[in-house]
Amino acid sequence: MLPAAAWAGVDPGTEALVDKWHVAEGERVSAGQLLVSVVLVKTSHEVSAPAAGVLEKILVEAESTFGPDQALGLMAS
Q1: Residue ranges of the chain with pLDDT lower than 50?
Q2: What's this model's pTM, rounded to 2 decimal places?
């Protein structure tokens, strides 16, 4: 999920774009590891793993859009 602070001041109804996933489904990641790059209103943001675990499922594929509070993927410990 893109942090709420990234959406501050953004017009309602605006969506962000998943630019690139840096890990694949099923891949083990460490806390703080870069998971996905997204673009919101011409600004790039990086979303990192909140904790160590496995990226079980990508919910928003690369080149797809998403809104605030929408999960991008599912993590398991």
Answers
A1: none
A2: 0.90
pLDDT of res. 1:
84
Q: Tell me yes or no: is domain 16-72 CATH 2.40.50.100.
A: yes
Report the alpha-carbon distance of residue 19 to residue 44 in Å, rounded: 9
List own/partner pairs for 5-12 with CB under 8 A and 24 or more apart. Answer: 6/40, 6/43, 6/45, 7/40, 7/68, 10/40, 10/41, 10/68
59, 41, 20, 30 alpha-carbon torsion, rounded to 10°: -70
- Alpha carbons 37 and 22: distance in angstroms, whole number: 8
